Amino acid sequence: MSNANATANAGLSTPIVRFAPSPNGLLHVGHARSALLNWQFAHANGGKFLLRLEDIDLTRARPEFETAIFEDLAWLGLEWPRPVRRQSRHFSDYETALSELRKLDLIYPAFLSRTEAAERVRKAEAGGRIWPRDPDGAPHYPGDDRTLTAAQRTKRISDGEPHAWRLDMKATLSGLAGSMCWDELGAGPNGETGKITATPAEWGDVILARRDIPTSYHLAVTIDDSIQGVTDVIRGEDLFAATSVHRLLQQLLGLPVPRYRHHGLVLDTGGRKLSKSEDATSIASWREQGATPADIIAMARLDSEA
Description:
The N and C termini lie close together (5 Å). The protein has helices at residues 3-6, 29-44, 63-75, 91-103, 114-126, 150-158, 169-174, 217-227, 243-253, 283-288, 293-299; strands at 16-19, 48-53, 85-86, 107-110, 164-167, 181-184, 194-197, 207-209, 232-236, 259-263. It is of the alpha/beta class. The model is unreliable at 1-11 (pLDDT under 50). It is built from eleven helices and ten strands. The strands form four sheets. The chain has a three-stranded parallel sheet with strand order 1-2-3. The protein has a three-stranded antiparallel sheet with strand order 4-5-8. The chain is globular, with a radius of gyration of 20 Å. The chain is 36% helix and 13% strand.
């Protein structure tokens, strides 16, 4: 860990960082890198390392994966306060935040299913329209539902029509004065560092609560970081762009703004980031093959972040 990183929080009595995996698969070396960088930062600064389980996807989260996360991190030599925060047990926190945004008239019920929204986009693009896409490449949600009257929305909800809740990005940004920034101690995919101006409009009307649960990744992670007093968010550069959404939610809800440090990713032989869905070799598998914690630390290439 470089001296710059080690002294980044010199003015804070207890820096707090967190590692927040989803228990929907086994951890791989990319996860180890993020966990270890958080751990090292906390220890270099006399801070606290938290483990959080982002288990809002109730259909994919499994107890065996949660157990494996604990085992892998302990095998690597990491320790954390218990009990850990499980997002699935704190839906009321996210519902409270949604209620605040609803009172501000900044969110709306979105009734289009993924299939219906994708079909709207397909037809528009087939007709020659250039449809906006977010930094992850997903098309922006069509604006049909924004034009519904309050009475129409209420009736459709009372009739039991499935719906998500989305942020009305245009209305939200029109009501804010000035720009929003965050302090980036690491670097984005294109080397962005220092004072970064948030650009949430790139994401369109982001989803804040899914049809089946009263939250989304964006909302839950922002609320959790505030509730847990996280001072420094250390995570992969693939989440750099998403920070603009989180910064906007912090502004709207009056939440503190942590410092951010986005780190490089561990890539496979094809130059792609390691992924559970692509069956990246898990830490457990490496361990079964005789690897030591030192081997995993070497694979995680921590020195490249110094």
